[in-house]
């Protein structure tokens, strides 16, 4: 059984729902004030924590709520495909702004900084580390490197992991059998998916698009309506 460092903040999330409040580039919701309101609405609905992207949004959300924040950056770089919190400096800044947990890319793709060093630096800044992975091997390596928990966030987003559109239920099973503490995240698009993920062994679940990306959810409905129209 692999066990991360003592995890008081992570423990408060155990068995609960975390809502990812992020807006894609170009979305009319991409504004720190709006992300703060989305976070408040999520907490009102029962979210125990929130997952927030970018310094301005973490700062805005911390100003309006005390719930645990999983912070991350999304940084496009020319030198690597790693884009979720690619450097320790970004992780430290997120911690300074109020993220108790920092999420970072722990895939095996070439990375700008060694994973273990990054995790050590973020721990020293007082935050816990959620390692976003896409395969079991990456999860095991991330725990060896000192991560507190892994997240299935990047399954389907690396060229070698299982593609969507469904959640990667196989990966959840593999993590549970291997005894890796994990968060289920990615394409949990219904309450039944979220409940199933907990039954499958997840410490807690993170849901994003289905709750906080109305543009994406509208697309699901619009396509279904269009398909129905064409087949009638
Ligand atoms: C792959 C990637 O960059 N995922 C991001 C990570 O923070 C977010 O865009 C997702 O919304 C989040 O993981 C939740 O997933 P879903 O929106 O499927 O519930």
Automatic annotation (TrEMBL):
Pathway: Amino-sugar metabolism; N-acetylneuraminate degradation; D-fructose 6-phosphate from N-acetylneuraminate: step 3/5. Its EC number is 5.1.3.9. Transmembrane segments: none annotated. The keyword Isomerase applies. It is an enzyme of class 5 (isomerase). It catalyses: an N-acyl-D-glucosamine 6-phosphate = an N-acyl-D-mannosamine 6-phosphate. Keywords: Carbohydrate metabolism, Isomerase. It comes from the Bacteria. InterPro entries: Aldolase_TIM (IPR013785), NanE (IPR007260), RibuloseP-bd_barrel (IPR011060). SUPFAM superfamilies: Ribulose-phoshate binding barrel. HAMAP family: ManNAc6P_epimer. Converts N-acetylmannosamine-6-phosphate (ManNAc-6-P) to N-acetylglucosamine-6-phosphate (GlcNAc-6-P). Belongs to the NanE family. This is Putative N-acetylmannosamine-6-phosphate 2-epimerase. It comes from Deinococcus metalli.
């Amino acid at each position: 059984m692999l066990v991360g460092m003592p995890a008081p903040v992570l423990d408060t999330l155990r068995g609960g729902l975390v809502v990812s409040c992020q807006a894609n580039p170009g979305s009319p919701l991409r504004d720190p004030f709006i992300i703060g309101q989305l976070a408040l609405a999520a907490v009102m609905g029962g979210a125990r924590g929130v997952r927030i992207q970018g310094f301005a949004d973490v700062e805005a959300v911390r100003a309006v709520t005390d719930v645990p924040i999983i912070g991350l950056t999304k940084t496009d770089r020319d030198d690597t495909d790693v884009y979720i919190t690619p450097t320790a400096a970004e992780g430290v800044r997120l911690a300074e702004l109020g993220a108790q947990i920092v999420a970072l890319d722990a895939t095996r793709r070439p990375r700008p900084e060694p994973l273990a060093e990054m995790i050590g630096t973020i721990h020293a800044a007082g935050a816990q580390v959620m390692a976003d992975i896409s395969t079991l091997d990456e999860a095991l390596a991330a725990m060896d490197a000192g991560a507190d928990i892994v997240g299935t966030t990047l399954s389907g987003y690396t060229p070698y992991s299982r593609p969507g559109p469904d959640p990667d239920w196989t990966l959840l099973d593999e993590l549970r059998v291997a005894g890796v503490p994990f968060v289920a995240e990615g394409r949990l698009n219904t309450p039944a998916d979220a409940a199933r993920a907990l039954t499958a062994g997840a410490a807690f679940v993170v849901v994003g698009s289905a709750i906080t990306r109305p543009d994406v959810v509208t697309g699901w409905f619009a396509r279904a309506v269009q398909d129905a129209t064409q087949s009638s």
